[in-house]
Design goal:
68 residues; mainly alpha; two-stranded antiparallel ribbon; 1 helix; 54% helix
């Protein structure tokens, strides 16, 4: 490798990370990262709603079971 002291490759990975990285304001996140974060948040809220529905259904089943 041309700059062996400045880069670090992780085993099993196809990308190279810079060993001298510093947050200097010149690095930015790609727009698709924001889209994926929004999608994950949306999916998490869907899961939370489904969990609440499951709890309600379990309560209904228990109430029906105690009546009989």
């Amino acid at each position: 490798m041309k700059f062996s002291g400045e880069f670090d490759t992780q085993p099993g990975r196809r990308h190279v990370t810079c060993a001298k990285f510093k947050n200097d304001g010149f690095h930015f996140r790609h727009p698709w990262v924001f889209a994926k974060e929004d999608e994950v948040k949306r999916l998490m809220s869907c899961v939370d709603r489904m969990v609440a529905q499951i709890v309600d259904i379990k309560d209904q089943v228990q109430r029906i079971g105690t009546r009989t």
